[in-house]
Amino acid sequence: MKKPGRVSAIGMFFLFAVLLSACSSTKLVSSWTAPNDVIKSNKVLVIALMGQNDRMLRENVERIMVKNLSEKGINAGSAFAEYGPKVFEGLNEAAALKAIKDKGYDGTFTIAVLDKTKQKTYNYGAPYFNPYYGYRFWGYYNNFYGGMYEPGYYSTTKRFILEANYYNLDNDKLLYSAQTRSLDPSSPESLATEFTNTLLADMTKKGVIK
C-alpha cells in the first residue's frame, strides 16, 4: 500500500526539468548599435554562417528571420534559398558582393555560431521528502534510517552562443551587432525561433527597426 503524503524530491526535480525544457531559454548577452542609424536597406539578405553539421539550424534560422523581418515591413531573403547550400563558395569579395547586389540586396544580416558545447553533469541522489512522517520522532527516524534515497543520474546541457551582424552594403557599415546564449533548445527550429524573437525585440527596442 502506498504511504500517504510521500513525495519524491528527485521526482519533483524531473517534473521541473521537463517544464523548463518545454520553454528553453535564450538570453541576450550583449548588443551594440551604431548611433543614430536604422535599417534603411531596400532588401536584406539573411546569411547563416554555419557548416554542414548545423544545416538544419542554418535553414531554420534564415527562414524564420526572413519571415519575421518581412512581418516588420523589411524586404528580406534567405541566402540558402537564393544561392543554395554552397553560397559564395570560391568567390572573392568583389564577386560575392556583385552576386548579392545583382539580386537587389543592399543590406546583409549574418548569423554565426560562435560556440556550441555539451556539458555532462552528475546529479547526486536526493532523499524523499515526506512531511507526513515528520509529525512523530519514530515515524520520521524509521522513514529515513533505511537510506530513502533516489539514485544519482547524469544530465547533459547543450549551450549555443550565436552572433548576428547587420551591414549596410552601400557604405559597408556595421549598424547592429549582438550575441545570445541559448540553453537546451528542444530543436533547431526552437533555437532559431527563440534567437530571432530575442534579437528583433532588442533591435526594435533600440530603434534599429522602426
CATH T-level topology of the domain at 29-126 and 159-205: Rossmann fold
Average pLDDT, to the nearest integer?
Answer: 80
Q: Which structural class should the secondary elements be placed in?
A: alpha/beta
Q: In the CATH hierarchy, what is the architecture of the domain at 29-126 and 159-205 at level 2?
A: 3-Layer(aba) Sandwich
Beta-strand percent range: 25-35%
SS field, number of helical segments = 6
Question: Distance between the terminal alpha carbons, to the nearest Å?
Answer: 64 Å
> Based on DSSP secondary structure assignment, what is the total number of beta strands?
8
Spatial order of the strands forming the largest sheet: 2-8-7-5-3-4
Largest sheet: 6 strands, mixed
What is the CATH superfamily of the domain at 29-126 and 159-205? Answer: ABC-type transport auxiliary lipoprotein component
H and E order = EHEEHEHHEEHEEH
- As a whole number of angstroms, the C-alpha radius of gyration is 25 Å
What is the CATH C-level name of the domain at 29-126 and 159-205? Alpha Beta
Which word captures the global form? Answer: elongated
The parts where pLDDT drops under 50 for at least 5 residues are 1-22
Q: Helical content, roughly?
A: 25-40%
